[in-house]
TrEMBL record, chain A:
Keywords: ATP-binding, Nucleotide-binding, Transferase
Name used for this protein in its record: AarF/UbiB family protein
Family designation: Belongs to the protein kinase superfamily. ADCK protein kinase family.
InterPro entries: ABC1_dom, ADCK3_dom, Atypical_kinase_ADCK, Kinase-like_dom_sf, Prot_kinase_dom
UniProt entry tagged with the keyword ATP-binding: yes
Matching Pfam families: ABC1
Transmembrane segments: none
Residue span, Protein kinase domain: 125-439
Organism: Nibribacter koreensis
Automatic annotation (TrEMBL), chain B:
Name the UniProt record assigns to this protein: Tetracyclin repressor-like C-terminal domain-containing protein
Lineage: Bacteria, Pseudomonadati, Bacteroidota, Cytophagia, Cytophagales
Residues annotated as domain Tetracyclin repressor-like C-terminal: 90-217
A Pfam family hit: TetR_C_23
Organism encoding this protein: Nibribacter koreensis
Listed InterPro entries: Homeodomain-like_sf (IPR009057), Tet_transcr_reg_TetR-rel_C_sf (IPR036271), TetR_C_23 (IPR041673)
Segments forming a coiled coil: none
Gene3D superfamilies for this protein: Tetracycline Repressor, domain 2
């Protein structure tokens, strides 16, 4: 048990802290309700409007304090109500992160159930404590016949608890998002489906191999080999990648060329997946990338893969055509198809939301409109935050009790914002690319 | 001829035969045999012979519990890593192995205990012998934990730790009986979490610091 505190250290503290932040928002919202009812006793005419204002303010403040990737990204998305389920999803995975590491006897048991053998019998060496926490499991380092492996073991019962955990989050989420049940479910189903997929390690191995095979030709990318014969629905065995995580690597002061090289590799990797494979590694979180010697980008963890349906793909990416190339009627049609606006909206609402979305698209599509784009410019990101800030506080937006945006957009948005944010951290100068049909 | 052979069979094997026949009977009929007389007859022995091994069906049921425990210990010690385990890991390993043994007898145990009221309130008589063996095992774990300072020796309280672990054992058993998750994964999680909790509570924690501080204040006051 003297090991226990050490094991705890492997859990990324930032994750835990972020979880706390988010829980903080929840607590504050609860507080606002108390405040609201206390005030109401004194002044019965008090409207709920003030309460919602308080809530939105607190949620927003909490979100904006969250530095780093996913939630910062989620925060940008506040212009489109699809963002918050994303935040919930992160909160959910973070809760898993904060789970104490699996004990070694349980790892042994998982192995015995899966292979009928202990880890020691399968490998020459096997680390008894976890070397890293994965989103819903932990990673052990093992060797056999001179090769080093990373062995990911899933926490027991995670798959079973996904649905019930989401059910617990749901009522809280309706409150927070000011959305009704039906609209919320529109997104929650998508989140649930992805989370369930994430617990299916057999699927992950299969997809990792597929995507790796399809992307191997891209320069400066490296994929570990996976070993299906040593993997099951609860265990994944793959090559151990010896390198530095993105954050550690950045601390070693890499040159601009090196940072560009990694950034370009990332961009090309996503371009190829989205436009050619139509399925994408939808979790561009810094922890899922390892910088290998020779300034090569190692890609791990294909737990979250989004398959992009063709009709969604066409509509969504038509939006990055140069604005001059899209006429008003086309744009309206796309907005309808992607559920940004609907017949239930009043003409005033339609006009407002069209304006908002156009502004968003112009801003977010900017990297695509130039040959090269410098992601180091913080003022570009500042503009995005400012826009998000302005819109999320807008009355018109918060009063609309409608889900906006196709559910497929949920993970695609998350992917792009994650990518942008990674490129920003890298300070990379990128040669941006568009598929031929958009040129 | 058969009778002569029977007399050569060592005592232990007849015991095993009785246990197996009893389990078999429960599995087939969903209940205990009607009488010792009938049961002995089906085994081709006299009632009197039966009593030289067990005095009642309760004894037989106790024998099943004991044999599960013995098998668990044997399997557990057969694992190479076991010798290097900390007391916490040993306890986890015990529960995981035990659940695995229980699984082999799940239908039998369900037939007998599914409708049983809470074990913690009414522990069936036949579990007593297993309890004694478990307490002895738990005592060695607690002792080892104290020696390696993973368990804090607290006056009066720490003597009760094996008893507390016994309650945990009953909890795990009943949790497992009701578990419907695939591969009894939820039981695995219940074991993992409850053992962690136990060792967090018995290890050095805020309570010890609190008492230490309180004692210090009390003594300081006396000194002044």
């Amino acid at each position: 048990m003297s090991q226990s505190p050490e094991e705890q250290n492997h859990i990324p503290t930032s994750k835990a802290q972020r979880a706390t932040k988010f829980l903080g928002a929840g607590a504050k919202v609860g507080g606002n309700y108390i405040k609201h009812y206390a005030k109401k006793i004194v002044n019965p005419s008090l409207s709920k409007e003030e309460l919602h204002e308080d809530n939105a303010q607190d949620i927003y403040t909490s979100l904006s304090q969250l530095k780093g990737s996913a939630l910062k990204v989620a925060q940008m998305m506040s212009m489109d109500k699809t963002m918050l389920p994303g935040a919930y999803q992160d909160k959910f995975t973070m809760a898993q992160y904060s789970a104490p590491p699996l004990s070694y006897p349980l790892v042994v048991r998982t192995f015995q159930k899966a292979f009928g053998r202990t880890p020691e019998a399968m490998f020459d060496t096997f680390s008894t404590s976890a070397v890293n926490a994965a989103s819903i499991g932990q990673v052990h380092k093992a060797t056999k016949d001179g090769k080093t492996f990373a062995v990911k073991v899933q926490y027991p019962g995670v798959a079973e608890s996904v649905s019930s955990d989401l059910k617990m989050v749901r009522p809280f989420a309706y409150r927070l998002l000011n959305m009704n049940e039906k609209e919320m479910d529109h997104y929650m189903d998508e989140v649930e489906e992805k989370l369930l997929e994430e617990t299916d390690y057999e699927l992950e191995v299969q997809r990792s191999q597929e995507i790796a095979a399809a992307c191997r030709h891209l320069p400066h990318l490296h994929f570990p080999d996976y070993y299906p014969e040593m993997s099951t629905s609860r265990i994944i065995t793959m090559d151990w990648l010896e390198g530095a995580h993105l954050k550690e690597w950045l601390q070693t002061n890499p040159t601009q060329e090196e940072r560009n090289q990694i950034g370009q590799a990332l961009w090309d990797f996503y371009h190829h997946q989205v436009h050619n494979l139509k399925q994408v590694h939808a979790d561009p979180h810094p922890g899922n990338f390892i910088i290998l010697p020779g300034v090569t980008l190692g890609i791990i963890d294909f737990g979250c893969v989004k398959v992009i349906p063709e009709d969604f793909y066409r509509g969504y990416f038509s939006l990055i055509k140069k604005e001059s190339l899209l006429n008003e009627a086309e744009l309206n049609q796309i907005f309808y198809d992607l559920d940004f606006i609907s017949d239930r909206d009043s003409p005033a609402e339609q006009a407002y939301f069209k304006g908002v979305f156009k502004e968003m698209i112009a801003l977010l599509g900017r990297p695509f409109h130039a040959e090269t784009f410098d992601f180091a410019q913080n003022d570009y990101f500042q503009q995005i935050y400012t826009l998000g800030d302005r819109i999320s506080k807008d009355k018109m937006f918060r009063q609309s009790r409608q889900a906006r945006g196709s559910k497929h957009g949920l993970f695609i948005n998350r992917t792009y914002f994650g990518l942008y944010s990674l490129l920003n951290q890298l300070g990379a100068h990128i040669t941006t690319t568009k598929p031929d049909w958009l040129k | 001829m058969e009778n002569i052979e029977n007399t050569h069979i060592p005592l232990k094997d007849t015991r095993t035969r009785i246990l197996e026949a009893f389990v078999h009977h429960v599995l087939e009929t969903g209940q205990e045999p009607v009488s010792v007389y009938k049961f002995a007859q089906s085994l081709g022995m006299t009632e009197q012979e039966f009593y030289t091994f067990y005095t009642s069906f309760q004894g037989v049921k106790g024998g099943v519990w004991d044999s599960i425990f013995t098998q668990t210990l044997a399997d557990m010690h057969a694992q190479a890593a076991y010798a290097h385990y900390s007391p916490k890991e040993k306890l986890l390993s015990f529960y995981f192995t035990w659940i695995e043994e229980l699984k082999k007898n799940r239908s039998y145990l369900l037939a007998l205990y599914e409708k049983q009221p809470d074990f913690k309130k009414v522990t069936p008589q036949e579990v007593q012998s297993f309890k004694r063996h478990f307490l002895a095992f738990a005592k060695t774990l607690v002792q080892e934990g104290k020696e390696t300072e993973q368990i804090v020796d607290r006056k009066y309280v720490s003597d009760k730790y094996p008893e507390a672990l016994w309650l945990e054992t009953l909890f795990i058993f009943q949790f497992w009986l009701k578990d419907t998750s695939s591969g009894f994964e939820r039981t695995d999680a219940a074991i993992e979490k409850s053992v962690s909790l136990f060792f967090d509570v018995v290890g050095r924690n805020a309570v010890d610091s609190f008492f230490d501080f309180a004692k210090f204040l009390y003594q300081s006051k006396k000194a002044i």
